[in-house]
């Protein structure tokens, strides 16, 4: 979809407001045109004593009561000019308000649609896209579009309207002066279009450079503790300075181009006004034109030249908006996770039976992550997965959650193919605790309720006890109302993991996934939590990824993975007696060595 097509679609539901704005602009312009005509008629017929025979000024003079009456009552044309100017201003205000209301409504809807679209884009898209750039597009670019919709759309119509309507009036007054008045307008417009092409290219550079700056700031603030831990502040400052310098350089180039345009256009506008004035004086001296006609031409020229002069600003903002529309449109054109064809949404919750057959998956670039793995998990059973880093454990969990779609093989949940099920329904059947859990900058209670909005307080405290975090929470001054800070920074790693575990338990889904979820808690706390989880055995299917093998002793089945394959399977007791990777890892742990 082209930027202009996207712009037209965004205006859906607000086109009547823009139609009203353009109508108000037409009325305002028509009223404005009467002001110089009244002044011209008054000067020529009431003050100069010329005969009012034909033409627009003559018709206006007759309408006001005739030259003699107006000459004795000059308050009438003066009052009419003031009243008409006020009326034109009122309709101009109505035009601006209607356009502003429409643009604000479009910007609000665009932000909502953009945010909604980002929520449903595939995980692969977010893997390959800078967060800072997405923030830039969702905020600054949308604001640029809003400003264009508020001002520039109507101003373009205004400039076109003036060219179409003022020209016939000026021709009716004097053909020769019309040619003189339009002598330099053509070059101004032509120069404006060349300027528009150049400024559009420069703004894209500025916008992309600003997006890189935003990305660097977001990335640095997110990893601030790591930066300080390694004393890399100076390096990060220099790392930020480079894109900031590029942003400055591109911005200066844009400002210089705008300065050249304004200076050239101002010079041409003043030259055009001077040309009309001196030509008009010469015509008056020759007796071929009246003073009133020159007055009207000067006023019409001011009416016409102002939007022509402002065309540079209009073109600048319009160029920015086209670039912003392209950047936002690129996101909106990305395909969502769910395909167009309807997917199966079962009416009943899953029992938790999992069956994986010959499952394979490659990361971007063809890097193999899983290679033909197969296993079964009965409802209510506990499956543990262990293996060195990079073995494919977390990738398997991502496939179960349909964050990615597998290349070949099969994953079935209750004998239903996972790729044929609605993603939202699939994810509602799983509760997940990640190794590095994400907590919102809210209270502890709100973070736990995030997994199941609407549950009662008794459920909240119950799951907090199972996660062995209830007493710790009560130790805080505000209890469950304690704010945890951005990403849960005020809590320790173990506390964050236990809050995340309570959040997953509160959801009470058929399948619980623990992705190395107890790695940051001490052994005693881990045993207490595992004991609480054992009491749930038979109620929910549990998948546990762990490096600490002592946490796997209670599992019904343990899978040992290495290089994307299952190399061993069995119970803890059988695997520690069997020659293989599991025994090696077990011996390393009981001897106190690092895995």
Question: Could you please describe the fold and organization of this structure?
Answer:
The protein is built from 21 helices and 10 strands. It has about 600 residues and is an alpha/beta fold. The mean pLDDT is about 80. β7 (about 510-515), α19 and β8 form a beta-alpha-beta unit. It folds into 2 domains: about 5-330, Up-down Bundle (ABC transporter transmembrane region fold); about 355-590, 3-Layer(aba) Sandwich (Rossmann fold), CATH 3.40.50.300. The strands form 2 sheets. It has a 6-stranded mixed sheet with strand order 6-7-8-3-9-10, sandwiched between helices. It has a 4-stranded antiparallel sheet with strand order 2-1-4-5, with helices on one face. α9 (about 185-220) packs parallel to α12 (about 290-330). The chain is elongated.
Topology:
Layout: H1 3-10, H2 15-47, H3 56-63, H4 67-72, H5 75-119, H6 123-127, H7 131-173, H8 175-181, H9 185-222, H10 224-229, H11 233-286, H12 291-332, E1 354-362, E2 368-377, E3 382-386, H13 393-400, E4 408-413, E5 416-417, H14 423-428, E6 430-433, H15 444-449, H16 457-466, H17 470-474, H18 493-507, E7 511-515, H19 523-534, E8 541-545, E9 557-562, E10 565-570, H20 572-575, H21 581-590
Parallel strand pairs: 3-8, 3-9, 6-7, 7-8
Antiparallel strand pairs: 1-2, 1-4, 4-5, 9-10
């Amino acid at each position: 979809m082209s930027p202009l097509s996207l712009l037209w679609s965004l205006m859906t539901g607000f086109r009547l407001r823009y139609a009203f704005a353009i109508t108000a602009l037409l009325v305002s312009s028509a009223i404005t045109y009467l002001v110089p005509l009244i002044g011209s008629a008054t000067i020529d017929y009431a003050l100069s004593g010329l005969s009012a025979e034909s033409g627009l000024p003559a018709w206006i003079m007759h309408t006001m009561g005739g030259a003699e009456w107006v000459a004795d009552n000059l308050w009438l044309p003066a009052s009419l000019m003031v009243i008409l100017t006020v009326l034109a201003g009122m309709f101009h205000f109505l035009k601006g308000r209607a356009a502003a209301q429409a643009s604000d409504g479009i910007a609000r809807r665009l932000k909502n649609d953009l945010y909604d679209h980002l929520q449903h884009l595939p995980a692969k898209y977010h893997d390959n896209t800078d967060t800072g750039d997405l923030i830039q597009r969702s905020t600054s670019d949308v604001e640029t579009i809003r400003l264009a919709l508020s001002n520039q759309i109507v101003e373009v119509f205004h400039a076109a309207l003036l060219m179409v309507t003022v020209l016939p009036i000026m021709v009716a007054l004097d053909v020769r002066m019309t040619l003189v008045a339009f002598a330099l307008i053509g070059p101004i417009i032509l120069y404006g279009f060349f300027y528009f092409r150049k400024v559009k290219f420069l703004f894209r550079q500025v916008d992309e450079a600003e997006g890189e700056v935003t990305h660097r700031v977001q990335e640095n603030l997110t990893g601030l503790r790591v930066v300080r831990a390694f004393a890399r502040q100076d390096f990060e400052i220099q790392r930020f300075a480079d894109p900031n310098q590029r942003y400055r350089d591109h911005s200066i180039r844009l400002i210089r181009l705008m300065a050249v345009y304004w200076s050239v256009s101002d010079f041409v506008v003043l030259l055009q006004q001077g040309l009309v004035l001196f030509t008009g004086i010469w015509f008056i001296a020759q007796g071929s034109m009246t003073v009133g006609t020159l007055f009207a031409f000067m006023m019409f020229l001011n009416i016409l030249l102002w939007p022509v002069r402002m065309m540079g600003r209009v073109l600048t903002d319009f160029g920015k908006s086209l670039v912003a529309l392209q950047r936002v449109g690129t996101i909106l054109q990305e395909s969502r996770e769910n395909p167009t064809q309807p997917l199966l949404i079962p009416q009943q919750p899953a029992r938790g039976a999992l069956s994986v057959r010959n499952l394979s998956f490659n990361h971007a670039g063809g890097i193999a992550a899983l290679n033909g793995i197969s296993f079964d998990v009965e409802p209510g059973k506990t499956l543990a997965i262990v293996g060195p880093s990079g073995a494919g454990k977390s990738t398997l969990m991502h496939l179960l959650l349909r964050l990615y779609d597998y290349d070949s093989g099969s994953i079935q949940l209750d004998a239903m193919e996972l790729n044929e099920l609605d993603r939202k329904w699939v994810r509602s059947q799983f509760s997940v605790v990640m190794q590095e859990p994400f907590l919102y900058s809210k209270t502890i209670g709100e973070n736990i309720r995030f997994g199941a909005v609407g549950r009662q307080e008794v459920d909240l405290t119950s799951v907090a006890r199972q996660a062995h975090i209830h007493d710790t929470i009560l130790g805080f001054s505000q209890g469950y109302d304690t704010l945890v800070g951005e990403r849960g920074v005020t809590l320790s790693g173990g506390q964050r993991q236990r809050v995340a575990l309570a959040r997953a338990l509160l959801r009470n889904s058929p399948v619980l996934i623990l992705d190395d979820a107890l790695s940051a808690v001490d052994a005693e706390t881990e045993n207490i939590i595992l004991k609480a989880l054992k009491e749930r055995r038979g109620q929910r299917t549990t998948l546990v990824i762990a490096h600490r093998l002592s946490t796997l002793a209670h599992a019904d089945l343990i899978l040992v993975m290495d290089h994307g394959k299952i190399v061993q399977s069995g119970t803890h007791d059988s695997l520690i007696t069997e020659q293989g990777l599991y025994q090696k890892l077990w011996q390393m742990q009981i001897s106190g060595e690092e895995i």
